[in-house]
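Let us begin with a simple case.
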Amino acid sequence: MFQSFEVTTRPENGPPRLAALRAAMRHDALDGFLVPRADAHQGENVAPHDERLAWLTGFTGSAGFCAVLADRAGVFIDGRYRVQVRRQVALSDFTPVNWPETRLADWLKEALPEGGQVGFDPWLHTLGEIETLRAALDGTGIGLTSSRNLVDHIWADQPQPPLGKISPYPIEYAGQSHDEKRARIAADLVAACQTAAVLTLPDSIAWLLNIRGADVANTPIAHAFAIVGETGHVELFTAPGKAAGLERHFGSGVSLAEPEAFTAALGTLSGPVRVDKGSAPLAVSTILQDAGIEIAYAADPCRLPKACKNATEIAGAQAAHLRDGAAMVEFLAWLDATAPGSLSEIALVEKLEGFRRATNALQDISFETIAGSGPNGAIIHYRVTRDTDRALQAGDLVVIDSGGQYLDGTTDITRTVVIGNAGSDERACFTRVLQGMIAISRARWPKGVAGCHLDALARAPLWLAGQDYDHGTGHGVGAFLSVHEGPQGLSRRSDVALEPGMVLSNEPGYYREGAFGIRIENLIVVRPAPSLPGGDTAREMLDFATLTFVPIDRCLVEVSMLTEAERAWLDAYHAEVLDKIGPRVSATALDWLQRATLPI
């Protein structure tokens, strides 16, 4: 199994660790210390060595941070984790703080009215993050101080940094050589009159050099830093053993150095050097500034090219989703035929991974499968453990959010199914979520529109009923890379214009704490939209093509709530599911699929 069901943190471990951290703060004359989820590469998935937030607090979510003061410790979490955090931390010592509704600066002002010094590790926070916080604290007497990492100081049995093997990523999947990619980035630097760019995001480095790694679970990246020069030459800083045997793949355009050489190499550059203040650690800017090197702050030059998939990558994504869709259909057919009393959430996760493994192409799961039944479905990023495993019961809604890593693509799909019959309230909520998903699927927009402009389309049916969900409607997805990829997205915060080749999720939901959860998710890819009769011929329009083909539970659809156009979309989608997936599944699954895709 790629997935483990062991409990990795316990609330009772938090208080003594918090006490040890406060003792270290007193020793260093600090009034506070910030503990982020992120590692030095701003990773969402972090290695055991970097699980500082989980080790200290018990909270295992993929986003959040803790602000520790002498008399309080706030765990800042967004809407995805507000149920989860209360289960995982010792509420006697840690206080969940709703973020971004409550800003860290405002919390610090209230907690430190007389001022004080708050320490942070400059390798774990970006310049943009610290600049914003300093500006908000200006004039309060609260200072931010670069510090040694106090969690590492007190974590006696901290695991060692990862040493996963780096492998070449074949051109048959990448669609473009790393020579071509490096030349493209170099041309961008020359056009901007910049001499070099510092790369700190592992997925940017993986894309640029056509490599994949094994340093974190579920995401094939390698921890590394890189400097790409105006000639296209790249210096890659990573542990020597990880890159052994890559000399032929890299050729003369890439040189290798140990991670410890990165700091010294920064000091030898001549400016202007491009640094992304939104992703690079503050320490990078400090080193360059101390060496008197001019910095040109701009976006990581690899992020946008990486996000706009080429034809080979899109074809790979399509193939991966057909393979993954067949595994999902086998799973759903099995689930429908199995008596609910004999199943638990862990059984679902194990069985689904088994069907994906049967494709003989699965490299890993793309994230830990979410299988939340009944009230557990309301925990947006629920992770089932031996302690929380719940038996499926008649009437339960079950949220199954999962994905696979294949050499030709990364998948992410959510389906909500009912065990037996659903109540009218659950059916109405499900249908509103479906209407939002259909609205995004059918959207057309002029070039230049960003995800923040489309997000409301998915929420409108819920808003009309006084409902909403506390997560973005969609995130970017990589090509055998991160299942959560930037800069594209479908959310209020996503101001990046959508461009052809961008792959995103389309996943509205609804969650009622203590009762049930609902989410429906397909992956979609941006493409040029065909012209329409009467449309502006000079106006470039875009729309989405669907990548995911798996039936939506018709038992949960309140047909009377759908418009004629929504019914037509659902029937057409199901017809396409049957056409594309039917030839790929067993006779038993095909029989189920034919019934599951009947017109409504």
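The second case is a distinct protein. As before, the sequence precedes its structure tokens.
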Amino acid sequence: MSEVLEKIKEAIGNKYEIRDIIAQGGMGQIYLGVHQSLGKKVAIKIIHQELKKDTDIRERFFREAKLSAKLNHPGIIDIYDFGSEDDFDYFIMSYIEGTNLKDKLKREGSIELNECLRLMTAVTDALSYAHDKGVVHRDIKPANIMIDKQENVILTDFGISKELGSSDNALTKTGISIGSPPYMSPEQIKGEPLDKRSDLYSLGIVFYEMITGKHPFEDKRGFEIYHAHVHEIPLRPESSVPYLPYQIGDIIMKLIEKSPDQRYEDGHQLLKEIKSFSSILSHITDENATQIASGKIKDNDATQISPGKIKDDDPTQVSPAQRPDKDSTRKSPQQNHEDDSAGSPIPDETPRISGKKWMVSAAIGLSLVLAVILVWKFYPQGEKSPQEKLQPSTTVTTVELPQEKPQPSTTLKSAEVPKPTKPSLDSIIRKITALGEKGDAEFLLRLWVDKPEFEIGDAISYHFQSDKNCYLTVFNKTSGGELIQIFPNHFNSAPLIQAKREYTVPEGFELEVTGPAGSENIIALASEEHFDLFPKKFDEQQPFLSVTEDDQNLIDLIDENINKIEKVSLIRQQITYSIVDTKR
């Protein structure tokens, strides 16, 4: 046994056998131990020897032990004992055989929806219990969510937790970062007072990662991640998982709101929403639930699932594939005909002719037979055949049929057919401004700029907000005759916006008015259905899509898209502002 293990053994006594090291972090190591009498495995966490001299760090270490020990919940790790010796401070906790969520995400990428809901329910329940006991975790992240071999979910590592109302002075002056940057809430980064809603923000980032398989700010490093948490709004998870039910996207985006006041009030409120959506999924067959979870449903779009849409006693809400049907094995008449022509016997359940139909069919057949006999009996020999004699009348009859009459259009010369005109930029702008209806109280769409008049060179930003979750496109008809798509853009490429959230374009930098002098129009189109107008993608060189009179191919494509969405229910808003040139 090494010198270090000898000292650990001396520190904790002979009650436990010390085995391998199983984890190591900034505060110390965790060893696997076995209770000598009971043979039960435990985890022994030991503070680094060099940190033991720092009284603040020791306080942090023992805070974890005390707070964890007071929390008695199956979803929170158990603390059995803790103590201090000359060389080591330690505490002994339950050993969890299994994995953590961080490793699970590395192996699997995104996690199936039903499993996500199960994990979120378990973590939220444990977190709500801790919050009810006055404990804020402050370090919610995948590495601190354990999943044992029985699929139980256990919340661990309360090393930087605090009791509500207690002072943080002992921890903040150590210089050790409080929290994990990828999961820290905006108020945590800014050093503001924290409450349970800070944990909910971190949990929202974890939920986003489970659903999409990636962090909402995955490309950010160092200071960038802090800036992103405080200032940037990530793309909705539907941008990565297109057929994700919109209720799940709403839950995630509410969890990661910048302002704590815009998040869920507490974990119990969140738990209620998760369970409500889970109950909706329970009305769907296992097969369809799996398709929704994996994003395979398209025709029956999972984003349309909402409470009350499916009733247990309403068979009209169940697809034919789900509804039991005693005639489900019966083939269509076309299939029976195909099978019969191939030599297959007609199935026994082929419909029989009813009595009345049989009598009508027999009468018609008998009439035809009598007609043939009369023609044969009275027709003189040596004359033309009936077919030859009837030929002229059949010809006349054919000519007089409506379908054989010449159509007026056939008399037009090709030179008289008008040639289609190419759409112009002005024509598609007129079409865009004619789409949809002006927003009303049922679907209020607000659109505004900073002021009604700008000088060339002024900074400008565009603002919009909707009372409903919707898909939105915002255009600027510039004074220079250009049509620019303001939203979506390179920075916010998803057209789906959240209800009652104010959006600003651009965000984080200034956009200058270029002129020339004149008036500019802003047009916003919104719908609860997805729609597209610009058939182009964004890139670094062109963050805002634009079209001029010279872009005929692009104008043609936009015109085609306008024709496609004419039946989409759209709400439209327009505003106008002025540009002046004071240098003239």
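The CA atoms of residues 75 and 126 lie 5 Å apart. The two ends are 88 Å apart (CA to CA).
Keep these points in mind for the review questions at the end of the chapter.
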